[in-house]
Amino acid sequence: MKVLQNRSYRSKWKFILCIITILIVPSQIAIASNLSEDNNINVNTKWTNNHVVEEFYVAVKEMPASLDVVNFNLTSMKCPDLLFYDLTTDRRLESLNFSINNECQIPATSFEYTTSMYTGNDNISRISWLGQPYCVVDNNNENMHIARLLIDEDMDDTYLIGDGSILTLPEGFAITAFNFFEYDDHEVDFLLTRDGNEKDRRTIKEDELYKYNLDINSSNQIENYTLRFYLETLFSGMCRNVAKINSTRMTSSNIHVINNNESFSFSLNGSKISWLGQPYYVVDHDSTGLTAARLLIDDSIDHCHRLKKGDTLFLPDGFAITVLERHPHIIGCGSTTGRSGYGNFSFLLTQYGNKIDNRTVNGSECYEYRLDLNGNGKNDNWVLKFNVGDIFLSTLEFYSGDFVEINSLKLISPDVLKIENINEMNIVMEGYKTNIENDGMTLTVVRDNITENIPFSKDGTVSFMDNWFTVRINSASDAIAVSSAVIISDTYELVGAVEYINSGYADVNLTSKDNPAILYYDLENSQGHETLNLSIDNNYDPPYIYDPYRIPADSFMYTTRIYPARDHNDLKIAWLGEPYYVTEHNSSSIVINKFLIDERSDYCYQLSMDDPLILPYGFNLTASINDSNIACLSLIKDGLEVYNATTRDGDIFQYKEDLNNNGINDNLVLSFNVKSVNETKGSVMINSLRMISPESLMINDGDVMLATYMINIKNAGSTIEVRLKSKEDYIRNDIILKEDKLTGILNDTFFIRVNGAVEVVKLLKATDTQQYEHELIKRRVNSIKEKMPDIMKNDTNITDETTSDETIHDVPVPGFGLFICVMILLIVRKKI
Q: How confident is the model at residue 806 (pLDDT cuts 50, 70, 90)?
């Protein structure tokens, strides 16, 4: 009965939704906090490397030789990493169309963005807006009210909330559970706060749905709920009571109103932009220019820092948080029944050792340190902010300690960047017009002035609609790319391609040109030569009950080939979705080195003796200038100088090593142009920076990768082909795909995930055919890591590389970090 109640909100029909997703996951950045009772901790990390901006192509085309225009018709199916694709409902209702003429302009009449409403499995009206999911609060022919969908989880996504603990939610909301079993054996009280202020207090029974409603569209009705979740069950242990909730769904309390036939523009205020490959937070944006600050920390809610009394958390730009006192609301195993309010803690905020703030904040509150960054005479611009979670003290015999938990830590530099000529940003913020059609169901955005075409900037780029996407033209190679910028901090996921199968079978054929988010496309050289072909099959007789989905071994093939650079001085190749330099090749082996940096002349760096340029693999570059405007450049690796050179304006710096073991340092590892030498400032400006990895990867004909894949070198050493190795016995070397788990292929570069079916009942007939969706997946690492893992080791001791790593969401246990340990050590019973 309980299961039926919990699932009553779902659809009445069961369908199988199989997905192959290409993930790009850089290395995670974490802070470990040792909660020792005797020693205080200075919590530090390499914050300066936390954030970079990487640009991913979502579509590419080549300019034709004729005077024809190039048409881009992007859909959620073709570009699921740019346009939102709702996997659970098979909805892909966003599209983006535009053209580029032979004058390198985008005709205003060709620009059209369209999105439509649809109904989710929970019978809630939804819509995609600029690639993000929204809920439709209200709609008609005249306007549409939409709210950002912040959390959208199903029954498999659960949270454990201990007695008195805090579950932090977006936009300053927090949930606390208390008064377990006070009134009934199956009831608990939930307290909802926002920025520490009480918003709702309610008693909920097991299997009951909690809803928090707001009149967020000013309709004098409260049917539009902001937060909902199911109380799955209650646990009572010898030391702690716990509530388990699932199916959490939350929408933003900020409503975006879109009116019909309205001219509108976007504002960059409060948004994130990229400047020279680094993320910036826009403090102020108006007609006079733009004020932005370097984004130093941008933690999510899931990223928590635990600090005990006396701990100091060191931050970039000399900031530091030191915990002074804490007054927890939980002491040992004490009951929280009847408590009012949260615990609090005091902390000291310093910058370069100087006190700048001293504050006491309560649990669930949000702290902000503000300054005047836009010159309006008011301290109304936040520089540092975070949410306060649990404040805890334990008196258990086997553990004695305390901690304060903070999350959603965000920090920007107080030194702002001011751009007076906003055209330098190349973002089209104005001149859009809306049309609401189809009884308020469809929203279209076009250009307001259809006679004014959109030109490209001098660097061949133009960005649209809140900096959502960028169009880039490389005139030298006659290639065009549509790209999406991603700020990398922890992990991120891009969906690269979607395929369907009918009657249990589908062919997946990817190319660099059609799937540039997965396979590498070289825009500078207008070249893309990677392919990945495979099939998905579940037609087996007898069927495999536990592993029904497979990639047949004979269907799998990955290929790539060598191509010349535009200047014909270098040979390049793409390998597993990344660019490489070809050091040496013949019919039996190919030696390649990964491109770490390969920039154009408009990317400049200023360096001096006191301000070195930090490079990958432990390299850094310093410069000193003598009286004759001659710069002495010194290249340091791991603290030792490996090369130096004296240069003037216009010189080319080159550092070479022996990468092919011929005994001669004749392979170029690092090079750049010396643009200018400034004796007054004591600095040197360089550009056209290019660097390859000093570690080589040798690929031999007949090599076996991880005992699973066979490598063949063809076409006189110019092509690499990878297939699944054949096995002698009757069991083929198929790749088994497990539901809700990751299956790695090609040295765990690509991953395939089969998402399980929606957990409802479906009545099948003999004539029914199952429909599947597949997303293709890729994993990447942050390119600014100290050492790039570009050496692939052939390990014959590993018998199967197609392991399935289950993707498991972290289950936060707010307010009680040791709860899981306690549950293991103590006898837990469910209270009847």
A: very low
Chain position carrying tokens 């998905």: 536
DSSP 423: G
pLDDT range class, residue 744, cuts 50, 70, 90: confident
pLDDT (0 to 100) of residue 594:
94
Residue 16: CA count within 13 A, CB half-sphere = 19
Cβ-contact 607, 635 below 8 angstroms: no
**What is the token pair recorded at 722?**
């990878």
Radius of gyration of the chain (CA): 29
Q: For strand 330-331 and strand 319-327, is the pairing parallel, antiparallel, or unpaired? A: unpaired
Q: Which of 749, 627, 601, 619 is nearest to 682 (CA)?
A: 627
How many angstroms separate the CA atoms of 22 and 778, rounded? 4
pLDDT of residue 753: 67
How far is residue 832's CA from residue 236's CA, in Å, rounded to a whole number? 10
- Res 7 pLDDT > 70: no
Our CA angle for 83, 88, 89, nearest 5°, is 80
And the tokens for 238?
């010898």
Q: How far apart are CA 221 and CA 214, in angstroms?
A: 8
| Beta carbons within 8 Å of 765's beta carbon, 6+ residues apart | none
pLDDT band at 314 (very low <50, low <70, confident <90, very high): very high
Strand ranges for 10-155 from DSSP E: 42-43, 52-62, 70-75, 95-100, 105-106, 112-116, 118-119, 125-129, 132-139, 143-152
With the C-alpha atoms ordered 117, 119, 122, 125, is the resulting torsion angle positive or negative?
positive
Name, in order, each residue with C-beta under 8 angstroms of 519's C-beta and a sequence gap of 6 or more.
510, 511, 512, 528, 530, 531, 532, 574, 577
| Cα 163-165-169 angle, rounded to 5 deg | 135
DSSP 301: T
Query: Which residues sit opposite 400 in a β-bridge?
Result: 395
Q: How far is CA 342 from the centre of its chain?
A: 33
460-487 in b/e form (b: 16+ CB < 10 A) is bbbbbbebbbbbbbbeebebbbbbbbbb
> What are the backbone angles phi and psi of residue 554, rounded to the nearest 5°?
-75, -10
Determine contact, residues 699/593, Cβ cutoff 8 Å: no
Tens of pLDDT, residue by residue over 535-594, are 877 776 666 666 677 888 889 999 999 999 887 678 999 998 899 999 999 999 999 999
**Closest C-alpha among 128, 118, 117, 125 to residue 94:** 128
Query: pLDDT tier at 67 (50, 70, 90 boundaries)?
Result: low
| Separation between Cα atoms, residue 179 and residue 188, nearest integer Å | 6
What value, to the nearest 5°, has the Cα angle with vertex 505 and ends 499 and 507?
A: 50
The stretch 773-794 carries a mean pLDDT of: 37
Is residue 572 within 8 A of residue 565, CB to CB? The reply is yes
Smallest Cα–Cα separation from 689: which of 613, 749, 742?
A: 613
Q: Are 694 and 787 in contact (CB under 8 A)?
A: no
Cα gap 742→19, rounded to integer Å: 11
